[in-house]
Amino acid sequence: MTMHKSPAPATSVRVDDGLSWLLTKFVERVTGVSGALLVSRDGLKMAVSGLQIDQADRAAAWMASLHSLARSAGSISGSEYGGFRQAIVEDDGVLVFVMSADHAVAEQTGDRTGLVGSVLGVLASPGADPNTVGFEMSLLVKSVADHLVTATRNGERPDGGR
């Protein structure tokens, strides 16, 4: 007899068990938040909660692109490290928050060179409090900063770990 696993619910894409549970708790806990996504700077999904597969794929690419644009725009101000921390996009039906995790990693490791960081994206209802969502995102990023460094191709992390 062949046993078939039941498919994952459409609202919970399993990408990486390591941090997806944390995003799920974040979505459940923060009022107005409907989805969260952790992606590498080049748009690869690392953890997802509250999004269908096709939504997560599109959101990962879009959030990484927005992160890149915001970092380059930040360089106009003359900031040595790009200075970008967060962008908020407001639409009639959704608020989209995109936060760089690089600054939190740099604060914990004391190193701003060679970072291959991540991007946290959050979808919220238009009525969500942007201050609360942004604050909670910042706490989340700081609490797991050491897990937000993406390994390079040779398998070494910029901070010397594996």
Automatic annotation (TrEMBL):
InterPro entries: Mycobact_SerProt_Inhib_Rv3364c, Roadblock/LAMTOR2_dom. It comes from the Bacteria. Coiled coil: none annotated. Signal peptide: none annotated. Pfam families: Robl_LC7. Residues 20-124 form the Roadblock/LAMTOR2 domain. PANTHER family: SERINE PROTEASE INHIBITOR RV3364C. This is Putative regulator of Ras-like GTPase activity (Roadblock/LC7/MglB family). It comes from Actinomadura livida.
